[in-house]
Design goal:
Layout (H helix, E strand, L loop, with lengths): L3 H10 L12 H15 L22 H12 L3 H11 L3 H12 L33 E6 L10 H6 L5 E9 L8 E2 L6 E2 L2 H5 L6 E2 L5 H10 L3 E8 L9 H15 L21 E6 L8 H12 L8 E4 L12 H4 L5 E5 L12 H15 L10 H6 L5 E7 L9 H12 L6 E7 L1 H6 L8 H8 L2
Parallel strand pairs: 1-2, 1-11, 2-6, 6-7, 7-8, 8-9, 9-10, 10-11
Antiparallel strand pairs: 2-3, 4-5
Helix pairs in contact: 1-2, 2-4, 3-5, 9-10, 14-16
Length: 454
């Protein structure tokens, strides 16, 4: 596997593939790339396996054809390519093969002009595969498992059975400079020069490596793209109600529909991409006190942008009550609840009646969010929205509570008999493993859910 440090220097230098801005002189790009390469010593030995292409993969194109291909797809002049690849110590054939192998077989921006600076846009061009009221939706978390490197986001979003993708995670509300810490595993680059100048070194540059383009393409395909706050290693401390409100405003301005001019240049996905909502996955009881204020502030901010619908969700563990997410206080503000029916043997999805009883109890909790109202309309009394949908959270990877797609089908057939009125579908940790579950000719988890719960 080619090291990320090399990809971060090679791919951005290849013009269109890295959305090279006309405002960034090639000279500065060259110099920053070469300094980074030398700093990381990724090309210390030109003959190491890092850049050695196997005979099976070696291109039989001539050097001239390779150079023409790179010129066409990078929009760099031949002289610029010569200079760049000379500094990197790459042949035309090596560079072409690396770009094709690690940036996709066909660059998505071949039609862009050499000075194109258009930021990714996320205006949808189609509707979601299923309606928001469906019972067979599929929701996937993405970016934090070993399988992430095997499955690009574009593959996740090409699956017609996937409805919502939750990028993971914001791990700290108040990191360097008072800005959030964004951790998307192997995706996106470290903070860019503008973010660094603002002291926001915990943010990421998701435009430079093209990940923002994939997010935009997902939204254009009708997928809802949310962002999760928390995770197992998060330190999302909210020490006061004011801190919670301030954090919500920052998240709104950096990732959602906010328009604070000061923060627009710092947005990790660029100024034109508005994510579709926030998921609460706090797993530390010590950080739970002011989550209700955070959620309430977000819901208030959502109302400021009438151009699109924003969502709020939570991912509690299956034992009730959840110790890390104060569900009773936030249920009226939620649209979805992705209950983690794994890592807890008493209510894992394969725990038989333990699971079925837990699922029914969670459903009833969500329906009874406003005591005293009619059973199926209680949540609407407080929020004006239907009760949150409950989702069956499963492990797509090995672990406590893991089941195969075939085993999940059997379980879901039993669930159908419970007639749970607010069932929304199934959520997965995580999307990359869910995508890999369909290999070998078998049905994937998402296919099983779509068909079984239809």
């Amino acid at each position: 596997m080619l090291p990320r440090s090399l990809l971060r220097t090679l791919l951005p230098a290849l013009g269109c593939l890295a959305q090279l801005s006309a405002s960034s002189p090639l000279e500065s790009v060259y110099q920053s790339n070469i300094r980074s390469i030398r700093r990381n010593d990724v090309l210390e030995d030109r003959n190491t396996q890092l850049l050695r292409l196997s005979e099976d993969d070696a291109s039989n194109e001539t050097e001239g054809q390779d150079a023409s291909w790179l010129h066409e797809h990078s929009k760099l002049e031949r002289a610029d390519l010569d200079r760049l690849l000379g500094e990197l110590g790459l042949t035309y054939g090596d560079a072409r093969e690396l770009v094709k192998r690690y940036a996709g077989t066909d660059p998505v921006c071949t039609s862009a002009g050499p000075s194109s600076t258009a930021a990714p846009t996320s205006q949808p061009t189609s509707t979601a595969p299923v309606s928001a009221g469906a019972r067979n939706m599929n929701v996937v978390y993405y970016a934090q498992t070993p399988a992430t490197n095997q499955v690009p986001l574009s593959d996740i979003c090409r699956d017609p059975n996937v409805d919502i993708v939750i990028l993971s995670f914001i791990t700290d509300f108040y990191s360097a400079g008072g800005y959030p810490m964004l951790n998307l595993g192997p995706r996106c680059w470290a903070a860019n020069s503008v973010q660094q100048a603002a002291g926001a070194t915990g943010l990421l540059d998701c435009v430079g490596d093209g990940f923002a383009n994939q997010v935009a393409a997902c939204q254009q395909a009708g997928k809802k793209m949310m962002l999760s706050v928390g995770g197992a290693i998060a330190t999302n401390d909210l020490p006061s109600a004011q801190a919670a409100t301030t954090a919500a405003q920052m998240i709104w301005d950096l990732f959602l529909g906010g328009s604070d001019a000061r923060l627009q240049p710092l947005r990790p996905f660029g100024p034109n991409i508005k994510l579709d909502g926030i998921d609460i996955d706090n797993e530390a009881p010590a950080y739970s006190t002011y989550i209700p204020e955070f959620v309430s502030a977000l819901r208030t901010l959502y109302a400021q942008d009438s151009s699109k619908q924003y969502f709020l969700s939570a991912a509690p563990q299956c034992p009730r009550p959840d110790q890390s997410i104060p569900m009773p206080q936030i249920i009226p503000d939620l649209d979805y609840v992705f209950v983690q029916f794994y890592n807890n043997p008493q209510c894992n999805v394969n725990a038989g009646t333990g699971f079925l009883n837990s699922l029914q109890s969670w459903s009833q909790d969500l329906l009874a969010a406003s005591p005293g109202a009619p059973r199926r309309r209680r949540a609407m009394v407080n929020s004006g929205r239907p009760p949150p949908k409950v989702f069956i959270g499963v492990l797509a990877a090995e672990g406590s509570g893991h089941v195969t797609p075939a085993e999940l089908m059997t379980i879901l057939n039993t669930v159908k008999g419970l007639n749970i009125p607010n069932l929304g579908g199934v959520s997965y940790w995580d999307g990359a493993y869910q995508a890999l579950s369909g290999q070998g000719g078998q049905k994937s988890y998402a296919e099983v859910v779509r068909e079984t719960l239809a």
